Amino acid sequence: TTFNKANKLRSLPFIMSRYLCLGVDIKNIVKATTETPAKLMKMEGRIGTLKAGANADVAIFKLKNQNVRFLDYKNEEYFGNKLLVPQMTISNGEIVYSQIDFNI
Fold first, then answer.
1. Which of 9, 50, 97, 100 has the fewest CB atoms in 10 Å of its CB?
2. Tens of pLDDT, residues 64-83
3. What would the DSSP string read from start to end of 47-102?
4. 29 and 19 Cβ atoms separated by less than 8 Å
5. How far is CA 38 from its chain centroid?
6. pTM of structure
7. How far apart are CA 18 and CA 12, in angstroms?
8. C-alpha distances out from residue 45 to 28, 54, 57, Å
9. What number of other Cβ atoms are within 10 A of residue 38's Cβ?
């Protein structure tokens, strides 16, 4: 079988949803995608946090109960029932993305 990245690496929220469906706690998923990279880049306290004085880019998600198909590295499929769907992104204090039905 051929490794098909498109079915596995759609987006960070898709990867986060995959881990959520595998049973990883949402707090650990958020930490792994915010605090941990900041620490690895030696930018702790400046990014990856919402503390006062940090460069806070914020992504707001809706947790949808939805059947989702995932593929592993062997192209074997498995299914989950939760999907993190981006609703809004704020960067440098400005809304740079908003889902059309956000706040409805």
1. 100
2. 999 999 988 888 899 999 99
3. BS--STTS---EEEEEEEEEEEEEE-TTS-EEEEEEEEEEEEEEETTEEEEE-TTT
4. yes
5. 15
6. 0.81
7. 10
8. 18, 6, 13
9. 17
